[in-house]
Design a protein that fits this description.
Layout: H1 2-7, E1 13-15, H2 24-27, H3 36-47, E2 52-54, H4 65-70, E3 84-85, E4 98-100, H5 101-109, E5 119-123, H6 127-152, H7 159-178, E6 183-187, H8 199-207, E7 211-213, E8 216-224, E9 227-240, E10 246-250, E11 256-259, E12 262-265, E13 269-270
Parallel strand pairs: 1-2, 4-12, 5-6, 5-12, 6-7
Antiparallel strand pairs: 3-13, 8-9, 9-10, 9-11
Helix pairs in contact: 5-6, 6-7
Length: 282
């Protein structure tokens, strides 16, 4: 929006809640899908057109819409994306180890260490679910690599030798993953053919070791001593009704439990509109 308005000759100010511009392109999309240098180049091109950027400026916390009106802004465009994960209110959703997909991706993309178990289940069938699952695979591979490199790599390797060794260790860690040492499972209501994620994303995830369980829905999360230990699933016979509305049906008697250490929910996103007040006139 800032780009298009600047081209039309408008003076534009972008208020960014985060410490860096880019929104979900930066914080929600893994780097393997959107290289950071490409994103930064596009952001620089937009800012070179003249828009002013104000970082660490969150609407509802640092200023209000009425504040902007008092400051003389003629118009306000709300374009803050879908940063809130949808909840899945089934029994056990509050167990330790059940986390939201957007929270997971934000932590990974900001470079924070996110503790996940050796066996992870991702709930969802869309592109965000695939992103979460593939990022979880990479997180596990990184942890494996760090463990191996700290114990196996001698200090005397040259830079080129270190590069070769690290690539070998990555191959070893991926092989260990495929042998079941570390697992990431994706559980989705849709059949394999109905999954809304891009086919290319699905196939690449499977090549990396992702295990997909189609036509299953989570009935409950089971745990011990407050910690999740598995997902009770039930077979989904249809996702939509005759009017093509989302209304899944399930087959009783098909319940089974998939053990896990971590559950990551990736079942859709929503906007956080809690800051809006009647005075804002939206």
């Amino acid at each position: 929006a800032a780009h298009d308005l600047a081209l039309l000759g408008y003076r534009v100010t972008v208020f960014e809640a985060s410490h860096a511009p880019g929104g979900m392109l930066l914080l929600g999309i893994p780097e393997y899908r959107l290289p950071r240098d490409v994103l930064q180049a596009q952001i620089r091109e937009i800012l070179d057109l003249g828009p002013e950027l104000k970082l660490n400026s969150r609407l509802g916390r640092d200023f209000s819409i009425s504040d902007l009106r008092r400051q003389g802004y003629w118009a306000v465009l709300l374009a803050f994306g879908l940063h809130r994960s949808r909840d899945l209110n089934v029994p056990g959703h509050d167990l330790d180890g059940v986390v939201k997909g957007i929270d997971f991706l934000l932590n990974v993309n900001l470079g924070y260490r996110f503790s996940i178990g050796k066996k992870v289940i991702v709930i969802g069938g869309g592109n965000v679910a695939i992103d979460v699952a593939r990022s979880a695979l990479r997180q596990q591979q990184k942890l494996t690599l760090e463990t191996l490199s700290s114990s196996l790599l001698p200090d005397s390797l040259s830079e080129s030798e270190l590069s070769v060794a690290m690539k070998e260790l990555m191959d070893v860690s991926r092989a260990a993953l495929r042998m079941g040492a570390r697992e990431v499972h994706l559980v989705c209501l849709e059949s394999r053919e109905e999954m809304p994620a891009f086919e290319e994303e699905i196939e690449e995830g499977m090549e990396e070791g992702l295990k997909i369980h189609p036509s299953l829905g989570p009935k409950s999360f089971v745990g011990e001593k407050g910690k999740v230990t598995g997902v009770e699933t039930i077979r989904c016979t249809s996702v939509f009704d005759a009017q093509h509305r989302f209304n899944p049906t399930f087959e009783s008697g098909t319940e089974t439990i998939i053990p896990c250490d971590t559950v990551i929910l990736a079942i859709g996103q929503a906007s956080d509109l809690s800051f809006l007040t009647p005075a804002d006139g939206i």
